[in-house]
């Protein structure tokens, strides 16, 4: 990504093209190697993998999301057990 894009306002706009940008990791943006933006995404829709200017998008923490129940940090086995044995 060009260094001109390493400004909080521009990074938030880029994040909003992926989902709802929450915040920019200022420490990472200052490194000028890569930017990190916290983005809230709708898991019922496909995840964005590329943006218009051929910038790859990487996601962190996807392995911690249960796509059956939508909870973050929920183990799939635990979610299935809750479905089978609700309180």
Automatic annotation (TrEMBL):
Annotated PANTHER family: DUF4283 DOMAIN-CONTAINING PROTEIN, GLYCINE-RICH CELL WALL STRUCTURAL PROTEIN 1.8-LIKE
Name of the protein this chain belongs to: Thymidine kinase
